[in-house]
Design a protein that fits this description.
This protein is mainly alpha-helical. It has helices at 5-11, 21-46, 51-60, 65-77, 83-97, 101-110, 118-122, 129-140, 146-158, 163-172.
């Protein structure tokens, strides 16, 4: 059984110490709780996660579901897991990457952030029209054949932009956009 230093100290363990069955059970329980907490700390230190996502990851990594829930609650008490702050960070990241609102919503969904935080996080989402136009100009500066235009449009769709926004940007850079639907 692998133990963290805190657990060893809490139980006053030393080499050769004999434990009763009840003490062994308490030790296993404490070791499981500490393992879940330390794994939660490692996950949170590596990336921003929501409460639900953290709990799911702990269970997937082999932690007991009850101990995973306790570890997440402990992390919340320490203010290390905050769904609202995570939602805002995810949206900022999407804005930085030039994603559309649809892709930002997908990222929030993938992070298992409760929908109650979505509206607030997405409230100040800036208009991406300039970024769409810039993307198209960079992609289509050498050639604007139909195949290249379709690839660029598909890339923008994957980034979460609507057909309407893309069509508007295509017309702004004087490319024919009649073949694209008005809205996705």
């Amino acid at each position: 059984m692998g133990l963290y230093r805190q657990t060893v100290e809490d139980f006053g363990l030393y080499p050769g110490k004999e434990l009763e069955d009840e003490e062994v059970n308490r030790l296993r329980e404490a070791a499981g709780k500490m393992s879940a907490k330390m794994r939660a700390v490692r996950i949170v230190s590596a990336t921003s996660v929501s409460r639900n996502d953290l709990e799911q990851r702990l269970v997937r990594k082999g932690e007991d579901p009850d101990q995973a829930r306790e570890a997440v609650e402990w992390m919340e008490q320490l203010h290390l897991v905050d769904d609202r702050a995570t939602a805002e960070q995810v949206v900022r990241s999407c804005i930085y990457k030039g994603y559309g609102v649809r892709r930002a919503k997908q990222a929030l969904y993938e992070k298992r952030i409760p929908r109650q935080f979505w509206e607030e996080a997405l409230a100040g989402y800036p208009d991406q029209q300039d970024r769409i136009r810039e993307f198209l100009q960079n992609r289509l500066k050498d050639s604007a054949d139909e195949k290249q235009v379709k690839r660029a449009v598909d890339a923008l769709l994957r980034r979460g932009h609507s057909y309407g926004q893309i069509r508007k940007a295509l017309s702004e850079i004087s490319l024919d956009s009649e073949e694209f639907m008005e809205e996705y």
